[in-house]
Design a protein that fits this description.
Blueprint: E1 2-6, E2 9-12, E3 17-24, E4 33-38, E5 45-50, E6 57-59, E7 67-72, E8 77-82, E9 91-97, E10 108-113
Parallel strand pairs: 2-10
Antiparallel strand pairs: 1-3, 3-8, 4-5, 4-9, 5-6, 7-8, 9-10
């Protein structure tokens, strides 16, 4: 099982970023997929989840209306479109199967300056 996240960077408050995560080592279409984020010394936070066919999405209250999760089952890829970014969105972002897999990728750093 492997996850490779990309797309992070430095952006000003109010800006946008798009993250991507390529998954491998399991049958992608069998699983709900999620994006998580984490800051040093803090617990990992569930940000967004998408159903296996993409028809169901859920979001943390803190990102609802600003972030959009999507997936491409032909490419084994999960996306996170982030808009209206705030400094408190600064974190390392990870993707994984919903409820985890026992494996984590390296994540991608998102930094939002005020």
């Amino acid at each position: 099982v492997q996850f490779v996240e990309s797309g992070g960077g430095l952006v000003h408050s109010g800006g946008s970023l798009s993250l991507a995560c390529v998954a491998s080592g399991f049958t992608f279409t069998n699983y709900y997929m999620s994006w998580y984020r984490q800051n040093p010394g803090k617990a990992r936070e569930l940000v967004a989840t998408i159903g296996s066919a993409g028809g169901v999405t859920t979001y943390a209250e803190s990102v609802k209306g600003r972030f959009t999760i999507s997936r491409d089952n032909l490419k084994n890829t999960t996306y996170l479109q982030m808009t209206k970014l705030k400094p408190e969105d600064t974190a390392v972002y990870y993707c994984n199967r919903y409820r985890g897999s026992g494996y984590w990728g390296q994540g991608t750093q998102v930094t939002v300056s005020s």
